[in-house]
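job 3f2a | input accepted
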Amino acid sequence: MPLLDLPDCVNARDLGGTPLAGGATVRMRALLRSDNHDLLTADGIAAVRELGVARILDLRHGWEAREFPSPFEDDEIYLNLPLLGVYPGFDPTAPDDYRPEVEHAPERVAAAFTALADAPPGPVLIHCHGGRDRTGILTALALAAAGAAHEDIVADYALTEGTDPQTMRDLLDHFDREHQGVTAYLTESGVDRRRLRAVQRRLTAP
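job 3f2a | predicted structure (206 res):
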C-alpha cells in the first residue's frame, strides 16, 4: 500500500492495490487512512487538497476533535463521526481488544460505514487520533465488504506503528463466529444493501 506524504502526519497511506476476491484490487485513491490532522504543516494541508479528497471522516470523539482541531473542520469535505463509545468495563490500560467496542455501539459503526458509502465521488480519507484503532476497524470493515481476505486486512493493519496483528485477527474471527461475517454484522447494525454495494463499487478497481 503506497505511503502518503502528508507532513507532519503519520500512518498515512493509500489502500489502493489491496487484493480483493476474484483477482481484483482496491482502486488507487479510493480509500486513504492516517492519524489526526492537527499537526499537519501547510505543506501537508496542501497535499491533502492536491489529492482531491472528497470526504474526511474523523472518527474521534467530539472532545478530541475540539481539543485537537482539524484544519479542515470548517470545510464541507470534513465530517466528525465518533466511531466508538466508552462501554461498561472499559479499561484503557488493557491490551487492545476491539470485540467489545464493535458490539457496544454498532449504530455508530453503521453510521461511519454509511458515511463512507454516501461520500461524494473521489478519495475518502479516514482518520482517528493515532490512525490505528478506530481507523483500523472501519478500514477493515470496508476492505472486508469489498471482498478482501482476512490475511490481507491483517497485513494492512500490521503496517501501522504499534499494532499487534493478532488484535485484528481476533476481530475478524469474531465477526465470522458471532455474526457469520462482516457483511452480516453490518447488515444487523443497520447498513442497507445499497450502501454495501456502494462501498464495493467505490473500492474495486475497474
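job 3f2a | Residues 55 and 124 are 5 Å apart (CA to CA).
job 3f2a | closed
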